[in-house]
């Protein structure tokens, strides 16, 4: 049922079993994950009424918007971590 | 709390008569999920359900979509669906809408550590977080602290699922009243049925039922959010009515009723409630159980990207609490007292045709069954693995473990039922509040240990103890209009002056104590236990063989397939 996760026989090269890793991509993935956390914990940056959209104050629609942004950033982080562990292993 | 002070354009008379059509629909849908629950044991059938891997984790092979429904059904509980709009309705955004940032920042956090927990658990056959801590430090006491905290925090959570069912039944016109037997019979029947199919099908039952629950929830909420605002004058009027109500002084205290948008002095409260709840959620055994039942390391990461769909629905649901303010919903219960937890069921009964009310009620009632089943399984696994096997019967076979788990799942549910029926409901809410504070204190031992063994096991235990005591005392001292103690989750943050979530303050203290004790113990060269895991274990994926450890699968007599489902290569067995 999983979406085509390659369970192929990638053999770890490191004797400890840690797969080879592109650290820059991993760091970039961490940035993607940190953005929504920082944005939403900075409450004073969005605790206001204006501009409202269709009668919905900024405070509310802005947080709804982050549902989608966070989802997109998390998916980006997922793709980055996959690509960071090269060789198609994970 | 104060009554609605806004105009009531559509004020409804609460009628206490039985809504027959709604009840028939509710019962019909309940029967459907009951049949599904029993049939679930045949789904992806295992040779035997007599092991925790099969009964308690559904074979550890759920794919992305099954996991999505299962985790969604597990995390977004009926109590959440009742309590969040109730908090919006009576206290406003800080008390209620924090659920939205909470369930957003949750996913980056679990993206980071859950894949590591999945891998190491897959490799060593861990079923609970306490199993992992045991393997990481070879420390029975730290493992016991983690398991007891998880167990105790989960119990009131199960009890609160009953509160969700009760709210629905009360608005539908059954329950309440004087006759104790008639009052509680529907709840007893519902729970007996739940207990029976959980016992026979294990985690497969809630996994199947979650499909029905989540589909119903999505339909009901989306219909409500599209239809209701136009009936009460549009979003402008809804937010206007909410703003008026929240600004109105409470006659008892003279302070405003609640918060419309977090103001000065409420920023920390809003942020710490979101952060603390997000960090705590995946420390609960039921979240871990649902995560470990997934079939591969990436399943959980893909889910971190698609689970926020539920957060969107939760946000809409929160706003229904304010739609109810504009609609002038009357939350007087059958006992004549005002009960904000009736707000969403009552709102539906006031505005929708009876058959749709039945669907909505079924969504909430079935929504209680899924998490209640998973929580009881998770609590039972924790008991059998980390208390029964670790302390009472060390040579227990996997079959015996599974049997204890099955029986324990019944005991846990019976306890929850007694809890709700005999004690004041407020007790369950108090303990749930405390549970959230307590469970966060296991975060360092679990999450930090996934990355490093720098922290000393005794220091983690010490930090945990300090956090537990501090959090409990602080929560005890919070008074509100309704209760003298356990009146809320917020207390003044020492040194800052603003209010904040007690769990985060306790966690910070926990962390300071853990670091200081670690430095001390390392300086004294106190041994830090033996580590059963290796660096590579934290990257293992489906298909990698399981290693024998002193915990799971240690019994040579157990004819346990190395990993169920046949996804492993033939090289299963002892890796080193």
3D architecture notes:
The complex is a heterodimer of chains A (90) and B (576). Chain A is mainly α and 90 residues long. Chain A has a domain at 23-84. Helix content of chain A is 51%, strand content 0%. Chain A is built from two helices and no strands. Chain A has helices spanning 23-41, 58-84. In chain A, helix 1 (23-41) runs antiparallel to helix 2. Residues 1-13 of chain A have low confidence and may be disordered. Chain B is built from 22 helices and two strands. Chain B has helices at residues 20-39, 52-56, 64-75, 78-91, 93-96, 99-124, 129-137, 140-172, 180-201, 204-231, 234-247, 267-281, 285-292, 297-306, 308-327, 343-351, 354-392, 398-422, 425-440, 443-451, 457-476, 502-523; strands at residues 490-492, 499-501. Chain B has a two-stranded antiparallel ribbon with strand order 1-2. Chain B is globular, with a radius of gyration of 24 Å. The relative contact order of chain B is 0.18. Chains A and B meet through helix 1 and helix 2 of A and helix 3, helix 6, helix 11, helix 12 and helix 14 of B.
Task: Provide keyphrases for this structure.
heterodimer, A: 90 residues, 2 helices, B: 576 residues, mainly alpha, Sodium/glucose cotransporter, two-stranded antiparallel ribbon, 22 helices, 2 strands, globular
- End-to-end C-alpha gap of chain A: 17 Å
Radius of gyration of chain B: 24 Å
Label the overall shape of chain A.
Answer: elongated
**Through-space gap between termini of chain B:** 64 Å
Q: What percent strand of chain B?
A: under 5%
CATH fourth-tier homologous superfamily of the domain at 25-39 and 48-433 in chain B: Sodium/glucose cotransporter
**Radius of gyration of chain A, in angstroms, nearest whole number:** 19 Å
Average pLDDT across residues of chain B? 84
Please give the number of β-strands of chain B.
2
Structure in a nutshell:
With 90 residues, chain A is mainly α.
């Amino acid at each position: 049922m999983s979406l085509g996760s390659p369970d192929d026989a990638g053999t770890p090269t490191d004797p400890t079993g840690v797969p080879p890793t592109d650290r820059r991509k991993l760091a970039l993935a961490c940035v993607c994950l940190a953005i929504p956390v920082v944005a939403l914990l900075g409450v004073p940056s969005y605790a206001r009424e204006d501009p409202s959209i269709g009668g919905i104050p900024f405070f509310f629609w802005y947080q709804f918007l982050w549902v989608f942004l966070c989802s997109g950033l998390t998916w980006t982080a997922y793709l980055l971590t996959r690509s960071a562990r090269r060789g198609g292993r994970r | 709390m104060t009554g609605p002070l806004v105009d009531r354009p559509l004020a409804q008379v609460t009628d206490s008569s039985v809504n027959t059509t709604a009840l028939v629909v509710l019962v019909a849908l309940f029967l459907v999920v009951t049949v599904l629950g029993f049939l679930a044991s045949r789904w992806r059938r295992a040779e035997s359900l007599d092991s925790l891997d099969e009964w308690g984790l559904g074979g550890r092979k759920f794919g992305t979509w099954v996991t999505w429904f299962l985790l969604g059904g597990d995390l977004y509980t009926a109590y959440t669906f009742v309590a969040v709009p109730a908090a919006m309705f009576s206290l406003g955004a800080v008390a209620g809408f924090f659920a939205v940032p909470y369930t957003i920042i949750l996913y980056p956090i679990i993206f980071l550590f859950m894949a590591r927990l999945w891998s190491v658990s897959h490799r060593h056959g861990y079923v609970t977080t306490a199993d992992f801590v045991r393997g990481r430090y070879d420390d029975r006491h730290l493992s016991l602290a983690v398991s007891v905290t998880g167990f105790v925090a989960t119990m009131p959570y199960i009890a609160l699922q009953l509160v969700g069912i009760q709210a629905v039944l009360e608005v539908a016109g059954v329950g309440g009243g004087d006759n104790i037997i008639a009052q509680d019979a529907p709840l007893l029947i519902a729970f007996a049925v739940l207990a029976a199919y959980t016992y026979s099908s294990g985690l497969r039952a809630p996994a199947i039922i979650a499909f029905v629950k989540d589909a119903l929830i999505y339909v009901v909420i989306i219909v409500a959010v599209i239809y209701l605002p136009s009936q009460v004058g549009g979003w402008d009027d809804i937010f206007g009515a909410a703003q008026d109500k929240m600004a109105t002084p409470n006659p008892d205290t003279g302070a405003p009723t609640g918060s419309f948008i977090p103001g000065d002095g409420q920023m920390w409260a809003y942020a710490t409630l979101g952060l603390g709840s997000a960090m705590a959620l995946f420390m609960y055994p039921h979240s871990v159980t649902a995560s470990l039942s997934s079939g591969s390391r990436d399943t959980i990461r893909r889910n971190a990207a698609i689970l926020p769909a539920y957060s969107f629905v939760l946000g809409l649901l929160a706003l229904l609490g304010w739609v109810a303010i504009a609609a002038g919903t009357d939350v007087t219960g059958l006992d004549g007292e005002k009960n904000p937890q009736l707000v969403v069921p009552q709102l539906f009964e006031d505005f929708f045709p009876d058959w749709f009310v039945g669907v909505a009620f079924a969504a909430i009632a079935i929504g209680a069954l899924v998490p209640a089943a998973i929580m009881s399984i998770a609590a039972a696994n924790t008991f059998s693995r980390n208390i029964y096997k670790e302390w009472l019967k060390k040579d227990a076979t996997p079959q015996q473990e599974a049997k204890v788990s099955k029986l324990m799942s019944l005991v846990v549910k019976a306890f929850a039922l007694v809890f709700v029926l005999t004690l004041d409901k407020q007790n369950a809410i108090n303990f749930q509040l405390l549970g959230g504070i307590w469970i966060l204190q296991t975060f360092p031992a679990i999450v930090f240990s996934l990355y490093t063994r720098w922290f000393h096991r005794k220091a983690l235990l010490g930090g945990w103890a300090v956090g537990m005591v501090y959090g409990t005392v602080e929560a005890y001292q919070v008074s509100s209009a309704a209760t003298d103690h356990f009146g809320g989750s917020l207390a003044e943050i020492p040194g800052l002056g603003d209010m904040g979530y007690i769990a985060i303050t306790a966690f910070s203290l926990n962390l300071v104590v853990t670091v200081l004790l670690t430095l001390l113990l390392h300086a004294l060269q106190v041994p830090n236990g033996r580590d059963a895991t290796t660096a590579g274990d934290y990257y293992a994926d489906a298909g990698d063989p399981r290693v024998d450890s002193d915990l799971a699968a240690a019994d040579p007599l157990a004819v346990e397939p190395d990993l169920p489902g046949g996804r492993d290569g033939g090289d299963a067995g002892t890796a080193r």
